[in-house]
Amino acid sequence: MRSWLKPLNAPMQDWRDRSVWVVGASSGIGRATAEALLQAGAKVAVSSRQEAPLQALAQQYPHAWVVPADVTSLESLQDAAQQVQAHQGLDWVIYCAGHYQPLRADHYDLGQMMRHQDVNYLGALRLLDVVLPSLLSQQRGHVSLVASVAGYRGLPQSLAYGPTKAALIHLAEALYLDLQSSGIGVSVVNPGFVETPLTAQNDFHMPALIQPQEAARQMLAGWAAGDFEIHYPRRFTRVLKFLRCLPYRLYFQAVRKATGL
Question: Per the residue annotation, which of 100, 152, 161, 232 is the catalytic one?
């Protein structure tokens, strides 16, 4: 097979007995992904600040192990990582933690800008700090960062959220280049609109809105194919990928026409 046709990551098609840590598993995409992995036979450690939803998940699935963690605290993540390693080891790490509030420049809120950075981006950096040494030592594993198509280019209502997701995309690309030779896979997940507690805040029509269970199915399919970028639903994300290629004059005109903003 020509090298440009080969998967960018080792395809993951059998999750039985794989040790996975899902950070941000209390609701939405994170919870649905944890459930899909558990149904596929993985041993899944689930983390978030909210322990009650995690305990409810563990009652349904005996292979779910609850490890509360706050991604804004390095100490909390260090403690959680030690527990995960001691309990089940670590094959895959999935960062699903996220914060979102629609924001435009005429209502600029520094607190919200910083909160988005702290959860969406700095939380991922803290997680890498506690898992990379182990993954590099064992020369295997996989890191998956859940970003968003909002990170492709600037969008209205996304003043705080979009830049953090753009940073995650860039981070995943750099990680891939650095870690591929060490036997560690890296993927970035760029969802479109998914019906979650976060998107419930939107007061506008969300094209091609899908359920979290479909998002999780797409993610497992992408990992099974060895993809680096997993984006969905493609009938929507392909449009945004096209817009990503436009020069600024045409891009700004297209976005204003599509959104009315």
Answer: 161
